[in-house]
From TrEMBL:
Protein name: RNA polymerase sigma factor
Species, as recorded: Actinoplanes cyaneus
Residues covered by the RNA polymerase sigma-70 region domain: 15-84, 115-164
Family (UniProt): Belongs to the sigma-70 factor family. ECF subfamily.
Source domain of life: Bacteria
GO MF: DNA binding; sigma factor activity
Amino acid sequence: MKRRVSPDEQLMTALYTEHYAVLINFVSRYVSDRHKAEDLVQETLLRAWKHIDHLDPEPGRTRSYLLTIARNVVTNAWRAEQRRPRLVSDETAVNSVPSADNVDQMVEGWLVAEALERLSPEHRAVIQAMYYEGQSVADAARRLSVPEGTVKSRAYYAVRALRAVFEEMGMLRSGGAA
């Protein structure tokens, strides 16, 4: 049994047959990729089919109408392309972007730096000397020109103050260990 073809399908087949070559040449002037150009021509014909009632049967006007649609399709595709992020092929730029692990470390570093800023200068100096520079209590005492007992006491209170700051910042739960 042969399927009946609607007049719209016959018209679209005729449009495709008559105008495809012109449309592909027109679109190819703006799009260098042949497959993309073919996709844009298909989009043009699809839009024409959706508005088939706007088609003027006069050949010159039909071609003009199709070229107008094609121009709009190409313009829309170009605009969409401009909004997409570009792939970077510069190896130095790619390597300078932090990886996911580095991002977590960077954020954690910023939060710790912010917490340290909230400490008194004396407590911050003891934390810097003992925990970041790895100095002993005796070395930190000599460097800071204070007795060793003062360094121990400041270190104890500085760690408690940091724990409180971390809790305020949401980095620790109350009662949790640092």
